Amino acid sequence: MNTSELFNDHVMATYGRFPLTLVEGQGVRVRDDAGREYLDFCMGIAVCSLGHCHPRIVNAIREQAGKLMHVSNLYFTDNQGLLAEEINIYHVGLEGKIFFSNSGAEANDGLIKSARRYGHLRPQANGKPRFEVVTFKQSFHGRTLGSMSATGQAKIQQGFDPLLPGFRYLPYNDIAALEDAVKDETVAFLLEPIQGEGGINVATKEFLEALAALCKKYDLLLMFDEVQAGFGRCGDPMAWRVIAPDVVPDGISWAKGMGGGVPIGCFWLSDRSVDEKGAKLSSLMGPGSHGSTYGGNPLVCAASLETLKEIREKKLSENATHQEARIRKEIASWKLPVVTEVRGLGLLLGIGLNPDLIPVSEGETCALKVVKTLMVKGLLLVPAGPETIRLLPPLNVTDAEVDEALAIIKGVLSEFSTEPIS
Ligand code: PLP
């Protein structure tokens, strides 16, 4: 039985998988079960920030696996403390505390729970807790009940109602829509500074600043979902800082790239004081309020610590900015009508496609058609929405590797007719 048959028989069909079985990877390349090599600019959807099997991560895992893989969070472990310190001091640069989860969705659930706690501490005028978290259309926050309910896309929620109550979705980047957004029960805003799954939409500086001002005015928490964009991918350790450096969030969630390939996520809460006695926001999640058996275990923290140190020490966020400039320049030089625009920041980039120029089969989007064609040519990418293909190379990608990928993309996009499909 081959692998796809095994999946057919035994694995739930929740993903529309490509007909490709990957067996090994090194750096920016992966190999399939037939020995064919691919340039991987998907990187586990922004997970493998140092490429595949980076020696620093591999060594950390090997060493830690032979020493101590897992113990309960009822004990202290050095790696978890060191990783939290690395994140707080060198990446966030603001005083706060961290809770470790296993994924981005769980990290967002943690932020949502924190917002609800804050709503109990600072209730409505009638004494009832505030609980509503306002999010944005086209957002993606995950697939747990909480994070799915926070997600502003009906297609993600379809068939799972009733959703968790207490969410409302506003149009992204629409400052005017913020005016009447705050209700008595509203306690927080949660947003991606750069929407990933929703099509690579970058928040404007004015929008983030307006939100921050609104949060201050109405005593709301400002929470950023940096699960896909964080830790160097967008040209700064923190994605929101590339856009609006003066904005200070109350909470942040991360996952994906922070582990370099191991399942880890976390959320951060500010140490700012929230009452007259000086209690910290982060202290709202006190003993018994939250937990995870695996969250932040010694094995994943060892891998994540080396990943984040490598990103910091090698200044890989600067490489993200350098490569973004090269990619934008090269794509602009093609002058291909099928390319509508390049969106995004650093190495979270989307190439917008003109659907009128790309013939598709029934039920297929033009982004999927292009991604499938690129795969045949030896390049792995993923769509971001129906009309955008997404570039997510590792943060240490070289000029030569970027050039190689761009040459494949140019070849494929040039194949599509410059005349609209009749
Ligand atoms: N938030 C954002 C912005 C994401 O892009 C994703 C995943 O794509 C998630 C949350 C969910 O993360 P996970 O799949 O690790 O639960």
Describe this structure in words.
It is a single chain. Helix 3 (55-65) packs antiparallel against helix 11 (298-313) and helix 12 packs parallel to helix 14 (399-415). The longest helix has 19 residues, at 316-334. The chain has two domains: 3-54 and 315-413, Aspartate Aminotransferase, domain 1; 57-313, Aspartate Aminotransferase, domain 2 (3-Layer(aba) Sandwich), CATH 3.40.640. 36% of the residues lie in helices and 18% in strands. It has helices at 3-10, 43-46, 55-65, 78-92, 104-121, 145-150, 154-157, 175-178, 205-218, 239-243, 298-313, 316-334, 366-376, 399-415; strands at residues 22-26, 29-32, 37-40, 96-101, 132-136, 167-170, 186-191, 194-195, 201-202, 221-225, 251-254, 265-270, 339-345, 348-353, 379-380, 382-383, 388-391. Residues 45, 103-105, 108, 140-142, 192, 196-197, 225, 227-228, 255, 265 line the site of pyridoxal-5'-phosphate.
Largest sheet geometry: 7 strands, mixed
Give every kind of bound small molecule, once each.
pyridoxal-5'-phosphate
Shape: globular
* Helix amount: 25-40%
CATH architecture assignment of the largest domain: 3-Layer(aba) Sandwich
Number of domains: 2
Subunit organisation of the chains: single chain
Number of strands: 17
CATH 4th-level superfamily of the largest domain: Type I PLP-dependent aspartate aminotransferase-like (Major domain)
Radius of gyration, in angstroms, nearest whole number: 22 Å
User: Spans with pLDDT under 50 lasting ≥5 residues?
Assistant: none
